[in-house]
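Summary: Need help interpreting a holo structure output

Steps to reproduce:
1. Submit the protein chain below together with the SMILES for adenosine-5'-triphosphate.
2. Request a joint structure prediction with the ligand placed.
3. Inspect the structure token block that comes back.

Expected: a single structure record containing both the chain and the bound molecule.
Actual: see attached output.

Input attached:
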Amino acid sequence: MMIARLKNANKIYETQAGKFTALANCNLELYEGELLLIIGPSGSGKTTLLSLLGCLINPTEGTLEIDGKNVDDLPDKEMAKVRLDTIGFVFQQFNLLAPLTAAENVAFPLKMRNMKTAEIKQKTEEALKKVNISEHKHKLPKQLSGGQQQRVAIARALVTDPKIILCDEPTASLDKHSLEIVMKELKELAEGGKAVAVVTHDPRLMEYADRVIEVENGIVNEVNKQTIN
Ligand SMILES: Nc1ncnc2c1ncn2[C@@H]1O[C@H](COP(=O)(O)OP(=O)(O)OP(=O)(O)O)[C@@H](O)[C@H]1O
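--- attached output ---
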């Protein structure tokens, strides 16, 4: 099922040098059950595209639909609610809170929602288990490898059961072995019904993708995977 759609979307940044079109006339659909890879050179507009899909910024023109609803014209507060309810984020640098254990990091988004302690515990355990990191749950981030930290970050992104998981260079800080584990986890989440979108420079991620799009100078094009592999 389609979960997000950008229609004729432009993103224009106002800079001191004038207007800059970071994304031009973008049409993109994101579906549940797929892992979408977003590739393209540095500065081409990939993060801008991910930020639009993540309801972090609004398109300057055009529309953004999330889960069947137009969200581009919502007030900030309501946009934030859509983001909290629908979207999980995973970043290159993991962004775990250093003084908290793995389990406490994963529980954090649920605590922010004032969920009951027993429910928090149960959902946290489930999320840790899903990415096979339960045995490390009492460790602090600095006691974990990069790959393990990224799996904790994925558990934190999925503990609220979002329909969309957006990842910005999730494997950039990882060695080959951890990259494979993290991409397998993300692929499994997609197979389980999540819509997973991953921005990357790394051609090794291509094999995990159901669909690949390329952003170049703010223009989005679908890529035929066969011609690249
Ligand atoms: N807030 C902003 N204000 C002005 N210009 C911006 C802003 N954010 C991004 N840009 C510009 O928009 C273009 C696209 O940026 P974006 O971060 O989307 O690219 P990217 O493909 O993710 O790059 P990278 O791979 O290097 O992270 C760049 O030229 C960037 O300088």
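--- end attachment ---

Reviewer comment: The first strand starts at residue 2 and ends at 15. The chain has a mean pLDDT of 94.
Status: needs-info
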